[in-house]
Amino acid sequence: MVARWQQNFSGDFRIAVNLSPRQFHERNLVENIERALIKSNVSSSDLELEITEEY
Fold it and tell me: Are 41 and 3 within 8 A, CB to CB?
């Protein structure tokens, strides 16, 4: 979907994804992100990761 938005609206379109502290510590986090970027045809430079606060 992001790749489609970039084509239709602006190449500068970025996406921000919230990660919980638990997700941030998952062993396969990087691999999961890489697979998602490849599958969605989005560059890693267009992805912003945000760590949510732990309660």
Answer: yes
